[in-house]
User: Which sequence fits this backbone?
């Protein structure tokens, strides 16, 4: 199963049917927030009316050189919490804050990824995002995007990397086979590229566990939303029935 974990909340409502007819099982609807606005954010997830599974996502944006800090408890109120940073500076501090996923400004002419920090993040089960939309427009921007994406894939070998669309229109939502071909052009073998496509599901499972489990226990069996229902209750419901996973 494949999921697109980054569809803009400004997605064209006239093209929602195209999302439903796509190969993707579900979508994250993304709300972008500037760092200085997060603590006072009053937010209700936007429902695009997609019949597939849909989940909420907040993307907190820090400009290059901006001090990185945020309310971690508030961050967990969205199904997926992503931090986008202008450059690689501050990555060490960000890893300690434990976002679900990290995204970069791939159009940056200077994105110095330190392999040690990237691998530390991976050990902490933090994911890295490659948003395709940023590489679709502008010749110079596209060149930098490709260069920086190649750097990330070289360091990670595709592990804990999630490819998303960032789509605002249906034309920006790429078919699975096209994403696989793109990853192959960056040097990944086809099998590894297919595994990268499955990382979106792994990310959502990880987010569900972080938010709704504690020490091997599901925190109440109440339907707390699609994320818990789709990635815990459906998957582990039989274990709860047998008492192997307890409710608290």
Assistant:
């Amino acid at each position: 199963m494949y999921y697109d974990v980054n569809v803009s909340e400004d997605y064209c409502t006239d093209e929602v049917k195209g999302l439903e007819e796509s190969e993707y099982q579900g979508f994250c609807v993304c709300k972008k927030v500037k760092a200085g606005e997060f603590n006072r954010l009053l937010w209700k997830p936007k429902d695009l009316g997609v019949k597939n599974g849909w989940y909420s996502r907040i993307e907190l944006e820090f400009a290059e050189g901006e001090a990185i800090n945020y309310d971690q408890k508030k961050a967990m109120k969205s199904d997926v919490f992503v931090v986008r940073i202008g450059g690689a500076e501050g990555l060490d501090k960000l890893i300690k804050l434990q976002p679900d996923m990290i995204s970069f400004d791939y159009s940056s002419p200077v994105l110095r990824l330190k392999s040690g920090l990237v691998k530390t993040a991976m050990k902490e089960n933090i994911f890295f995002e490659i948003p395709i939309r940023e590489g679709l427009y502008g010749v110079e921007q596209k060149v930098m995007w490709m260069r920086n994406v190649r750097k990330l894939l070289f360091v990670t070998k595709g592990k804990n990397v999630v490819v998303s669309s960032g789509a605002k229109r249906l034309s920006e939502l790429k078919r699975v086979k096209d994403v696989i071909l793109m990853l192959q052009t960056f040097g990944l073998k086809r099998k590894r590229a297919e595994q990268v496509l499955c990382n979106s599901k792994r990310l959502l499972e990880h987010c569900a566990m972080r938010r709704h489990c504690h020490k091997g226990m599901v925190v109440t069996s109440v339907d707390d939303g699609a994320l818990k229902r789709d990635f815990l209750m459906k998957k582990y419901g039989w274990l709860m029935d047998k008492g192997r996973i307890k409710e608290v």
